[in-house]
Amino acid sequence: MKKRIPRQSEVLTASAQRGFSLLEVMTALSLGSLIAGALFSSLIFIGRSSHSLSAYSGLSGQTRQGVEIVGRDIRVAADIVHFKPEEGVLMLFHQGTDDQNPKLITLAYYPNKRLLKRTQRTLSPDLQEVYSAEQSELFRGLEQFSFVGYNLNRLETSNPAEIKQVQMQLRLLDKRGQRGITEEIYSTRFILRNKG
After folding, report:
1. C-alpha distances out from residue 113 to 127, 135, 139, 152, 170, Å
2. Does some domain include residue 64?
3. Which of 12, 13, 123, 189 is 20 to 30 Å from 150 by CA-CA measure?
């Protein structure tokens, strides 16, 4: 008698009806769980990195904006009215122009609140009245802050009449997040251009 050879379609149908073995199922499950674990941990890492980057970006932007405002105030000041570096207070006088009244600007550091405030008072042309006052917070989260005055010879001084340059040093901390602390340390020196 002749032995019949099964056709290929018959062989595939028989193995398809049989299903997967336990070993094949366990192998597929373990590989799938390894891939899912790797994807999950990389998503967590990306989320934490994104949070740290946004905290640093926010702190850097706040620092840059505050330094620009302080720098502009110091550079265009006609005189220093009051200077107490140990208290973190600097009061500047801006000469009025034809279309603007004179201004008195106070930069004051509040260590308990960890912030630097800027108060701008618009004065009458005869300097006897205050027309308006605006207050804003330039820096929040200050751990350290100081003003240092320098004379024309670049020697440190606290006498407002001698000061020609003002150095501002600050250290900001942003403690948002569970583990992340973002730190920004900044030191810059400004020249009073309009002071005689």
Report:
1. 32, 15, 11, 34, 15
2. yes
3. 123
The distance of Cα 25 from the centroid of its chain, to the nearest Å, equals 51
Q: Is 5 inside any structural domain?
A: no
In the structure encoding, which two tokens stand for residue 147, read together?
Answer: 């003003």
Identify the residue whose tokens are 């407002």: 160
3-state secondary structure of 180: coil
Query: CA 1 → CA 4, 158, 194, distances in Å?
Result: 9, 118, 117
Quote the tokens at residue 131. Answer: 């027309």
Checking if the pLDDT of 181 tops 80, the result is no
Which position has the higher pLDDT, 45 or 117?
Answer: 117
- Whole-angstrom Cα distance, residue 126 to residue 101? 9
Residue 37 inside a domain? The answer is no
Range of the domain at 93: 44-191
**Alpha-carbon span 144 to 115, nearest angstrom:** 10
Instruction: Give pTM, 2 decimals.
Output: 0.68
Q: How many domains does the chain have?
A: 1
The verdict on residue 35 lying in a domain is no
**Residue 113 phi/psi, 5° resolution?**
-95, -10
178: pLDDT strictly greater than 60: no
